[in-house]
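Cont'd.
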Amino acid sequence: MIGGPHPMTPALYRVRSRRPDRVDTVTLTLEPLRGECPPFHPGQFTMLYAPGVGEIAVSISGRARSGGYTQTIRAVGAVSAALCGKRPGDVVGVRGPYGQGWGLRAAAGLDVVVAAGGLGLAPLRPLVRALLGDRCGRISVIVGSRAPDLLLYPGDLARWTRQGADVRVIVDHPDHAWRGPVGLVTRLIDRIVFEPRRTYAFVCGPEAMMRDTAAELVRRGVAPGRVELSLERNMKCAVARCGHCQFGPLFVCEDGPVLRYDRVAPMLAVPEL
Amino acid sequence: MDAVVIDSLEPLVDELRSRGYAVVGPVVRERVIRFEEIASADRLARGWTDVQEPGRYRLAEGAGEMVFSFAASPDSAKSYTQPPRQTLFRMRGEQIEEAEEDAPRVALLGVRACDLAAIAVQDRVFLGGRHPDPAYLRRRRALLLVAVNCAVPGGTCFCVSMHTGPRATTGFDLALTELAAPHRFVVETGSERGEQIVAALPRRPASAEDLAASAEVSRDAAEHMGRHVETEGIQERLSAHDSPRWTQVGARCLTCTNCTMVCPTCFCTTVEDATSFTDGTAERIERWDSCFTLDFSEVNGTPVRGSNAGRYRQWLTHKFSTWIDQFGMSGCVGCGRCITWCPVGIDVTEELANLP
């Protein structure tokens, strides 16, 4: 029997806290008005609704101590700007969590490379936390940022280092104070230690960055089936009914956003697919 | 229930209306067969036929007393199963309410076999996945389908290729076959609802001659398909992403979205949000969208499919190939509407035939 709420109807959540991360980016902690936040897998996303303005897909970057979702939003359009402008106490709509998350179990016992570009660190944050919680092998986290002051979650990066991860950051446009490496995140692959044939990789960032990173990892001997990417496509519904996020036979909202490189590499090579 | 014969549609329309159904059937409006609510069978497009070719639709007189001597209308059941615009919810303060959408009873009179197949495709899309749509189900249950077996396929029809017609075999409440000399309709029932309606009509049992004539209508229609598609190996052919054909058809395509609007299975939608000036109520509306629009695939301000060729390839590939991966069935039912209503006459059957 089909009943219950319409799949497009959000639940109402209250903004519990708001933390500006960078000049254009804000992390909100959201708690439902009624009941509890449903469980989520690292890599999943929700549809966040700014009342009267619109709805966008935003990855879940963690669970706050209070139990709410933390979600990091960059103001790039009308809806994301409206969400970034929300203050503690304001009400937003939330649908989800949706989609396939990171293959945490598949990485068990292997070296792990986590590669992030820009805001791509947001869906990887809960993954790294989970990996650090129950790990034996090496964990390398390589992060590319356009500029030093645009680096996301510096506090988390420092904590992960203390917890034993090899965390490295590279920037594209250094400022005077920057002493670290300069360039694209693929350059950091040289600097980390991993056994390619025993390595699992999780990659999230702009599509070109993910393509290059995955190709470089594979060139070094990592199996294409052990590289996961989180794809970004236009999403209006997140429940495979609006058609916008199609990528070949896939609905990125339901079949992804996390997809294995061996499955998507041929499709990523097709322009405008 | 065995097939029966009725001599007139008037009692059928009256019976449906008395049962609370809005009867929607084919009428002539602005020299096109359109589907709209009718108060009596007199309004039906009696005596008209149509001529359909790529980018061309003309009505013609001369079908005598025949009521259904035309092929697909630009209207399909989609307008009733998935309305072009619907309110999803309203939010005021800290309250959110789904739009109390009642699903009024609608009897669609004159639905063709291809359209029944299209409804089956929609059922799969809206009810067969992980997130079934309760509003779709309500509308679907309120919809009574009176099919008509095609006698005069159009020049752009290819239901035989897609294995969806021309005869209605399933998915209807009633199925009519219109016969001439003398003018009459053979009525088959496909549901209990349909049987109850037939039981209330003046009727007689169909004779062996009636049934043979009815079968002959479909046999004859199957031999007069205007178009053909070779479905064997179609997914392999559509995997030719870099064929020069895409650029050629992209140069002709106006990305006007007509094909997706008249397609009975195209299901893509977008949402519109607004806030009332008077009381601050926020409202979210879902409306038909098309993969031919530039912003359909936009991510962070840039469309994934910026070229006409890319968007045409997406549509054709989805309809005939990736739809099968997603839903286990083709997205095309062979109604030919996209060919007829394409302003530059792009013919999907020709495009498919020209792929390597």
